[in-house]
Each structure stands twice: as structure tokens, then as C-alpha cells.
Design brief:
The chain is mainly β and about 110 residues long. It is built from no helices and eleven strands. The chain is globular, with a radius of gyration of 13 Å.
């Protein structure tokens, strides 16, 4: 059974930074593309960033240059470093591993 657990969300002022972490178990972590997605109230869930097993990354245009996704295969974790946060980054952030989702972690950017 795949388990996905996110952490690291919170309230931050515009221009600030947050680091999200995701731990996945029940899979051979190093073989899977890992992804971060987000969903704001009233909007569809959207891709933020993915990182393939070989380390290739993909970012949404809206976060390029501000967010960085990384993975640690030894620890079965993936992180999302978020810098220069904007109010429009406010959403619930979800980690995806294989076909499984975590419960999400709330990120609120507000002064």
C-alpha cells in the first residue's frame, strides 16, 4: 500500500519562502516520477513541478525561476523549495507518487 505524506505548509508573507516535503512509502521510490500539484479554492488541481527518476524536472510556467523540486532517493522524499511567494501561490499543495496522492498541505501567502 502506497502512503504519501506532505509537510511544511503554513502562512507566509508575500516575497517569503517555504519548503515542502513529501515522504512516500510502499513503492520503489527511485523508479517513479514524483510530482507536486496544487489546488486553490474554486479551481482545478494543477501541476506545479515534477521530477523524473533520472532527475529531469518540469515546472509550471507560473513557478519557473521561483520554485525548485528535488528528490532524495535514499530517504524516499521529494521537496519543493518555494521562494518569492505570491498571493496567487495560495493553495493546498499535494504530492503524487505513482498513482497515489497525499492529504495535502496548506500554503497561504498573505500580509
Amino acid at each position: 500500500q502506497v502512503q504519501v505524506v506532505e509537510s511544511g505548509g503554513g502562512l507566509v508573507q508575500p516575497g517569503g519562502s517555504l519548503r515542502l516535503s513529501c515522504a512516500a512509502s510502499g513503492i520503489i521510490f527511485r523508479l517513479y516520477t514524483m510530482g507536486w500539484y496544487r489546488q486553490a479554492p474554486g479551481k482545478q488541481r494543477e501541476l506545479v513541478a515534477t521530477i523524473a527518476s533520472g532527475g529531469t524536472t518540469i515546472y509550471a510556467d507560473s513557478v519557473k525561476g521561483r520554485f525548485t523540486i528535488d528528490r532524495d532517493n535514499a530517504k524516499s522524499t521529494v521537496t519543493l523549495q518555494m521562494n518569492s511567494l505570491k498571493s496567487e501561490d495560495t493553495a493546498r499543495y499535494y504530492c503524487r507518487a505513482a498513482m497515489s496522492w497525499g492529504q495535502g498541505t496548506q500554503v497561504t501567502v498573505s500580509s
